[in-house]
Amino acid sequence: MTVAADGSGAEPVPGGALLVVGDVVTDIVARHRGPLAPSTDTAAAIRTLPGGAGANVACWAARRGGVEVRLLGRVGADAAAWHERELVTAGVRPRLVIDTQAPTGTVICLVDTGAAAERTFLTDSGAALRFEPDDWSDALLDGVARLHLSGYLLFSEPSRALVEVALAAARARGVPVSLDPASTGFLVELGVDRFLALVEGIDVLLPSRDEARLLTGLPDPVDAAAKLSRHVPLVVAKQGADGALVARSGQVLAQVPAVPATPRDTTGAGDAFTGAFLAALLTGAEPEAAAREGCRAGAMAVERLGGRPPTVTG
């Protein structure tokens, strides 16, 4: 049994909206000092924060401004009210499907406090991977200028069925679609050929460097981005501290440098890039200029704990 909750605190923005469909999860972020010590204690600073790749993208897009941002997510009853409040506070208009049989997804983020602030995820997707076609309504596309799909939707059979329905509806209305592959670990399980078949028809792909390498089998990030752009019209490959690559028609057209930052927690940096990039694209920016905005958002993200942008209250 599911019920829907609609947030109503964010003000509409004139013009076409960005609709994000994706995961809303609870992040438990543990910043530990030094390597993890087996069979004993490791000192860490631990916080519980709102997260999820789809929700993070929506929040960073809303922070960039200039476009109305909506989010379709699926959560458990255990944390639905909290997540809705956090999304509305961030300027997002959420529609949360409440799953009465599964809890909200939870991710434990182990963050090394070393210079790179690298992280390891332990993921219990919970309700986030229980999306199903009945959660979709074509009316969700009313007033929408772009649909963005979190790649996590491709990693369960029911949510893949939702993706198929949403893509068909977007094509019927001429709404462009972007997608972020989301996870190399899950991509390996899904399979590269199957992934490329599932994303056929999207117009923008936003992989990380490792995801682009995995999807092409090419070690050089420039070659990987170029090859992917033969499958998808526009590829924007996120390169972390090396910025981003913008590729079309088998060629890398721009290499956008990163914005210098002192990493504290790299969780959500790619989501920040994606959100700012899509919002900029929707307000008329060319892909290279939009990628520069993405890099600025990514730099801000790595200097913060968790995957969300700052808000008035936080």
Describe the SSE topology.
Elements: E1 2-6, E2 17-21, E3 25-32, E4 44-51, H1 53-64, E5 69-76, H2 80-89, E6 93-99, E7 105-112, E8 119-124, E9 144-150, H3 157-173, E10 177-180, H4 184-190, H5 192-198, E11 204-205, H6 209-216, H7 221-228, E12 234-238, E13 244-248, E14 251-256, H8 269-282, H9 287-302
Parallel strand pairs: 2-5, 2-9, 3-7, 5-6, 9-10, 10-11, 11-12
Antiparallel strand pairs: 1-6, 3-4, 7-8, 12-13, 13-14
Helix pairs in contact: 1-8, 6-7, 8-9
Low-pLDDT windows of residues: 8-13
> In CATH, what is the homologous superfamily?
Ribokinase
Number of domains: 1
Instruction: Output the structural class.
Output: alpha/beta
CATH architecture: 3-Layer(aba) Sandwich
Shape: globular
Strand order of the largest sheet: 1-6-5-2-9-10-11-12-13-14
- Report on the biggest sheet: 10 strands, mixed
Put simply, the count of helices is 9
Q: What is the string of helix and strand elements?
A: EEEEHEHEEEEHEHHEHHEEEHH
Distance between the first and last residues' Cα? 34 Å
CATH topology: UDP-N-acetylmuramoyl-L-alanine:D-glutamate ligase
For the record, the CATH class is Alpha Beta
DSSP, total strands: 14
Mean pLDDT: 91
- Radius of gyration (CA) equals 18 Å
Strand content: 25-35%
Helix content: 25-40%
